[in-house]
């Protein structure tokens, strides 16, 4: 049997394998709420514009609502031969209201319909990702406030660099997430033009009111060019790009959690709720959730590159290739949502091991820069010379297998005779972090103030 929706010029139906490759209903059925919302806005506009008589509008509206009820109740029968969600809804509508249902598709094509549905879905999802990222910021800011003065090693090249505080480290991710949220909102703002009414590609000869449908669906305005409206998926790409960057941030933090929870580091403890055991090794507390956050960034980035590649060779306007925008976009944004939730859970009951962190903060000559700065400040040495003197002292201490604070004053004075015992004060990690009071620095007072400000801002 030929397709009821477009089978007029076909003598027979599609081959089995054609039906299989063509069908998107398996994954675009999740666009049902958006599809019905779009159709309700469209039919109301057709009525207001005098294109459809009120009785048809009323019948179609009632029919669309019953279809929506059936889908919500799980009683709707999705059938592969109907290809996609748009034809599935319309086909059921026809069964419910009869031939008047056929008038719904006046001045519309599946091309503007699917672009509208996808935009509505991506828009809702960006809004909820923004909220979830705010939840994670809140959890991190609380941890930052609690641990504003908990010293830990700061790393460059994963080598001990300078002491920082655990709170400061948490706030670094709060800042990253703030930019991620800015990107979600920017993507939303650029996306928010309505393609509905662009029809197949050229617009329509019916006197439709695109401003009305745009407003009814919460868009700022209708799109300006009918070809562009149905031909681009840059809104999905931009959402995926923003999601990828956010996922990379989460992945880096996840990687840190994996390293920090190892027995060798033992910097933090994840709660039982966010670790798993081993079926053979009883001692294990594996950071699976963190590992999966790290791994899921791969599929999110994959969805972005996948869709970029789908789009890059397509001539204007619509090509069926664009049906491939959906699975990756749905999957990736859903994965990011799960990652944000898992990260928030992990952070909420994360416990830093303060003693281990403090010990580690002082090892590896992490206060060498403090010593060099002291030589500059107290003795007036040029920084390069102070660096050199400090380097010699690190060499002496390292040869003895001790920290800088274990060198005697005499040993210090061999490198620079004017050093006094006041120098020992700056070799402690607490003093080191307390001295970093520059704007954005790791001093506990700074961190406390910033954590407080974030908590207020996030509400
Ligand atoms: N299922 C299609 C998609 O997701 C809907 C648009 C179909 N348009 C067409 N001209 N065949 O892209």
TrEMBL record:
PROSITE patterns: FUMARATE_LYASES (PS00163). Pfam families: ASL_C2, Lyase_1. Residues 10-302 form the Fumarate lyase N-terminal domain. Gene3D superfamilies: Fumarase/aspartase (C-terminal domain) (1.10.40.30), Fumarase/aspartase (Central domain) (1.20.200.10), Fumarase/aspartase (N-terminal domain) (1.10.275.10). Pathway: Amino-acid biosynthesis; L-arginine biosynthesis; L-arginine from L-ornithine and carbamoyl phosphate: step 3/3. Residues 365-434 form the Argininosuccinate lyase C-terminal domain. It catalyses: 2-(N(omega)-L-arginino)succinate = fumarate + L-arginine. GO terms for molecular function: lyase activity. It is an enzyme of class 4 (lyase). Its main location: cytoplasm. It comes from the Bacteria. Keywords: Amino-acid biosynthesis, Arginine biosynthesis, Cytoplasm, Lyase. InterPro entries: Arg_succ_lyase_C, Argininosuccinate_lyase, Fumarase/histidase_N, Fumarate_lyase_CS, Fumarate_lyase_fam, Fumarate_lyase_N, L-Aspartase-like. SUPFAM superfamilies: L-aspartase-like. Its EC number is 4.3.2.1. It is found in: Cytoplasm. Signal peptide: none annotated. Belongs to the lyase 1 family. Argininosuccinate lyase subfamily. This is Argininosuccinate lyase. The lineage of its organism: Bacteria, Pseudomonadati, Pseudomonadota, Alphaproteobacteria, Hyphomicrobiales. The gene is argH.
């Amino acid at each position: 049997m030929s397709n009821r929706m477009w089978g007029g010029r076909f003598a027979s139906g599609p081959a089995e394998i054609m039906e299989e490759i063509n069908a998107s209903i398996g994954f675009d059925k999740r666009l049902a709420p958006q599809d019905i919302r779009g159709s309700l806005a469209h039919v109301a506009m057709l009525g207001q514009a005098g294109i459809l008589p009120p009785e048809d509008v009323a019948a179609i509206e009632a029919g669309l609502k019953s279809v929506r009820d059936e889908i919500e109740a799980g009683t709707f029968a999705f059938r592969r031969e109907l290809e996609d969600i748009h034809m599935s809804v319309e086909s059921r509508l026809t069964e419910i209201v009869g031939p008047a249902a056929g008038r719904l598709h006046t001045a519309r094509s599946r091309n503007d319909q699917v672009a509208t549905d996808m935009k509505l879905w991506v828009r809702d999802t960006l809004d909820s990702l923004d909220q979830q990222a705010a939840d994670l910021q809140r959890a991190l800011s609380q941890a930052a406030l609690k641990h504003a003065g908990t010293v830990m090693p700061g790393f460059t090249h994963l080598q001990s660099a300078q002491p920082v505080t655990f709170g400061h480290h948490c706030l670094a991710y709060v800042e990253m997430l703030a930019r991620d949220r800015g990107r979600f909102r920017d993507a939303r703002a650029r996306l928010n033009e309505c393609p509905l009414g662009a029809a197949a590609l050229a617009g329509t000869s019916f006197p439709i009111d695109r401003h009305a449908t745009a407003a009814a669906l919460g868009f700022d305005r209708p799109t300006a060019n009918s070809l562009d409206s149905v031909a681009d998926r840059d809104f999905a790409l931009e959402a995926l790009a923003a999601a990828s960057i956010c996922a990379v941030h989460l992945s880096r933090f996840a990687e840190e959690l994996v390293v920090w929870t190892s027995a060798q580091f033992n910097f933090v403890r994840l709660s039982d709720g966010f670790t798993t055991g081993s079926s053979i090794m009883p001692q294990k507390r594996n950071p699976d959730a963190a590992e999966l956050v790290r791994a899921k960034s791969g599929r999110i980035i994959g969805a972005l590159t996948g869709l970029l590649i789908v789009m890059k060779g397509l001539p204007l306007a619509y090509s069926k290739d664009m049906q491939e925008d959906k699975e990756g976009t749905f999957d990736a944004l859903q994965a990011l949502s799960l990652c944000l939730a898992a990260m928030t859970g992990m952070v909420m009951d994360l416990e830093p091991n303060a003693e281990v962190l403090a010990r580690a903060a002082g090892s590896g000559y992490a206060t060498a820069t403090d010593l060099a700065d002291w030589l500059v400040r107290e003795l007036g040495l040029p920084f390069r010379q102070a660096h050199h003197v400090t380097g010699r002292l690190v060499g002496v201490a390292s040869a003895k297998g001790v920290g800088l604070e274990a060198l005697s004053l005499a040993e210090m004075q061999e490198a620079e005779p004017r050093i006094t015992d006041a120098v020992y004060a700056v070799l402690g990690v607490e003093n080191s972090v307390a001295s970093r009071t520059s704007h954005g620095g790791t001093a506990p007072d700074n961190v406390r103030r910033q954590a407080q400000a974030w908590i207020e801002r996030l509400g």
